[in-house]
Amino acid sequence: MLELNIISSTDMEKRVVRLQFTGKLNYETSLTAREQLHGIIEKLENDVNCVLDVSGLSRIDSTGFGVLIYFVRQAALRNSRSAVVVADPFIADLFHIAKFNQIMPITGSEAEALKSLESGQAFPLAPEQY
User: Residues 19-58: pLDDT tens digits?
Assistant: First the structure.
């Protein structure tokens, strides 16, 4: 049984798409995740901020990070900025080790993510350079 769920919700008033990940984002679930995210990207409007809430993940591996990068790069083509919400300190450390903080904010809450996205903070790398 594949243990991954991605729930997408949109708040067009705030121009935000929220993706809530639960379960495991790893080699076994990466193809399913990529397919789900591709469907979300196809419907993504230009200039919409994306909040990737991975607080519900119990596990992530390098292929899971690759799936997230795929989404962030595709969203950037639509002039959309992304932020990651991570509650687990261990998983947050993995995001920093993988240098996600070079392309987007890594925060502990959705409120922090939205504030960071609204600030227009610049990052050392564009998603396509990562």
Answer: 999 999 999 999 999 999 999 999 999 999 999 999 999 9
CATH for the 4-129 domain, from 3.40.640.10, 3.30.750.24, 3.30.930.10, 3.40.190.100:
3.30.750.24
Cα(111)–Cα(67) distance, integer angstroms: 24
DSSP state of 22: E
pLDDT 10s digits, 117-128: 999 888 988 888
* Element containing residue 49 per DSSP (H, E): strand 49-60
Distance separating alpha carbons of residues 19 and 71, to the nearest angstrom: 11
Cα–Cα distance, 21 to 121 (Å, whole number): 24
- The type of residue at 4 is L
**107, 84 Cβ separation under 8 angstroms:** yes
